[in-house]
Write a structure and sequence with these properties.
By secondary structure, the chain is mainly α. Helix 13 crosses helix 15, helix 16 packs parallel to helix 18 and helix 20 packs antiparallel against helix 21. The N and C termini lie far apart (131 Å).
């Protein structure tokens, strides 16, 4: 950082109470008041164009009493040190006091102008510090062109290729050590400009974007660094006193910073990460940002939701009415925006389209998010169901992950009533469960009986289809012989009743493939009955007892009918044998 020393005399200013006086053999005959400070000086200094009086008030001098004292010491020849920290204040105060060449050659304004142009604007950090100091004298700095020249200097240095950067800069990213790295990172400038006030930062970013030289990702990185520097961290779970701590004077400032950052995000997709957008949206909810800012953030999050991870979605809820940890409403709103935007772009998606890949990736992430949110003991069941049902059917080719989320929710919320359990499990499509998950679901005592029966039914149906589609060669031969036998029987002339009886006695057909399938179904049915009996304690209602009684009576009737038919068959057989004799 550059310095300039002016004057050779020692500092003879001293303070008595709220009065600053110069040690001199000549009595002070001029009183200057600036705010609460009184200066006792000499009339030889009062050559600012005003009429000579015993007392002068300069409350509106830019830079205040500190800037005025620099000008006063310059007039007395007392040594002063100028740098980027105080040059702007001194320059504005000297202009205010008209310390120009028209009053005296080599006056203060000329020396400050030369130092500012030749030293301050030539250095990177000097330009940043000087620009930062203009925030306390905004109007004077802009009127004198100081702000504009500082911004131009900063922008010019940012646009220099990294290979030609030969000045010091601040770069404290994890894993980076400037001594060990020979190459300069492309975003070397982002941390230094993050120290500026939001309006000055906006001027620089706007100037950089107007050049169309830097990549949008670099602009986005600068916005990310600035947001981390100035906005509150909303990624942590809300502390109990957070609602009260946000009600203070810094809230409005944070809102303005947030609104400005959102307005500066480049329109290019990927200029900022979806993680950064989601955190901004969470911050907007915590700060009560404007609807315009929230709407824009929701739209941007929806455009890039296919890049999201589960950790990106684990944002805490900041509403005082919410007792649950995670902001599931935010995820639901962003998912809805994603579906609306992609349905407009892909009105008729095919299986190989980008839409299908994107929406299935989002579906996978949402189901994994539900598995984490299900562990929250205060998560309302209807919010859980609403998010799960928001995904279209094409987003879930399998329901295994959704089953895991439901199982975790049932395990963490044992107080759910039967109606809530049924409503929760209704979103599950048992036909999209893998055999491994079906095996787990059949033994899952947390699931309602209706869901277990559906799993058994579709698992049985899937097994029957697989058996019919791929039969062993021996069964294929039996099926062929059966078909040929049926054709032979149909081609034979019809026999009298006695002949048919004798033909039946002579030929006892072996069990057909249909009968074997029937036996298999009976076996699976018995397994289903075993699973149903496991739930008898839960569904011991009148309707359930009537259903079981009907099942028992039906089976008895079947046995009675089968016994009667066997008796009839044996009597007919004896009758035919008697006739033969």
């Amino acid at each position: 950082m550059k310095f300039m020393k002016l004057g050779t005399r020692p500092d003879t200013f001293y303070t008595e109470e709220a009065t600053r006086t110069v040690s001199s053999d000549v009595a002070s005959d001029l009183v200057i008041q600036i705010n609460n400070i009184t200066y006792l000086l000499h009339k030889l200094l009062a050559d600012s164009g005003d009429s000579v009086t015993d007392s002068v008030q300069l409350h509106d001098i830019p830079g205040g009493e500190d800037a005025f004292e620099l000008c006063a010491k310059f007039c007395y020849g007392i040594t002063i040190n100028l740098s980027a920290h105080n040059v702007v204040r001194a320059f504005c105060a000297a202009k205010y006091l008209r310390m120009t060449e028209s009053v005296e050659k080599g006056n203060f304004v000329l020396k400050l102008e030369a130092f500012f142009n030749s030293c301050i604007l030539e250095g990177w950090k000097d330009s940043i510090v000087a620009l930062h100091s203009t925030g306390k004298m905004i109007e004077w700095s802009e009127n004198l062109g100081i702000t504009r020249r500082c911004i131009d200097s900063v922008v010019e240095k940012i646009l220099v290729p990294p290979a030609k950067v030969n000045w010091s800069f601040t770069y404290s990213r994890p894993g980076y050590n400037q001594k060990r790295h020979q190459s300069v990172p492309r975003d070397w400038w982002t941390e230094d400009i993050s120290d500026l006030e939001i309006d000055l930062f906006r001027f620089i970013i706007t100037a950089l974007r107007s050049t169309n030289i830097l990549q949008p990702q670099l602009i986005g990185e600068a916005l990310h660094v600035y947001a981390c520097r100035w906005l509150p961290d909303t990624t942590k779970v809300r502390p109990p006193e957070s609602s009260a701590s946000l009600i203070n004077q810094s809230v409005e400032k944070n809102r303005r910073v947030l609104d400005t950052i959102v307005s500066l995000i480049p329109a290019d997709r990927g200029s900022v990460s979806v993680n950064f957008l989601l955190r901004l949206l969470s911050t907007a909810g915590a700060l009560g940002a404007s609807p315009v800012t929230k709407t824009e953030l929701i739209r941007r999050c929806g455009l890039q939701l296919d890049e999201v991870t589960v950790d990106d979605l684990l944002l805490p809820s900041h509403l005082s009415s919410d007792q649950h940890c995670y902001d599931i409403d935010l995820v639901s709103i962003v998912l809805e925006s994603f579906l609306v935007l992609w349905r407009i772009q892909y009105p008729a998606p095919s299986q190989d389209s980008q839409f299908m890949r994107s929406i299935r990736k989002v579906g996978k992430v949402i189901d994994c998010y539900l598995q984490v949110a299900a562990k929250d003991p205060n998560m309302p069941v209807m919010k859980f169901i609403s998010l799960a049902e928001a995904l279209p059917d094409v987003a879930r080719p399998k329901h295994d992950d959704l089953y895991k989320a439901i199982n975790i929710y049932l395990k963490g919320h044992p107080d759910l009533n039967k109606a809530e359990k049924k409503r929760l499990c209704r979103i599950l499509d048992c036909q999209k469960l893998s055999p491994e998950v079906c095996a787990h679901a059949v033994k899952n005592e947390r699931l309602p009986l209706r869901t277990v029966v559906q799993v058994l039914f579709f698992d049985q149906e899937r097994g029957s289809k697989a058996t019919s589609q791929k039969l062993p060669p021996q069964e294929l031969r039996s099926r062929t012989q059966e078909i040929q036998l049926n054709e032979t029987v149909q081609s034979k002339p019809k026999l009298p009743p006695d002949d048919r009886a004798q033909e039946g006695v002579r030929r006892a057909p072996s069990p057909t493939i249909h009968e074997r399938d029937h036996h298999k179904k009976l076996h699976l049915k018995s397994e289903r009955n075993i699973a149903i009996s496991r739930e008898q304690g839960e569904v011991e209602s009148e309707k359930g007892r009537e259903t079981r009684e009907e099942g028992i009576s039906g089976s008895k009737m079947m046995n009675t009918r089968k016994t009667a038919m066997q008796g009839k068959s044996s009597s007919d057989h004896g009758h035919y044998k008697g006739r033969d004799r």
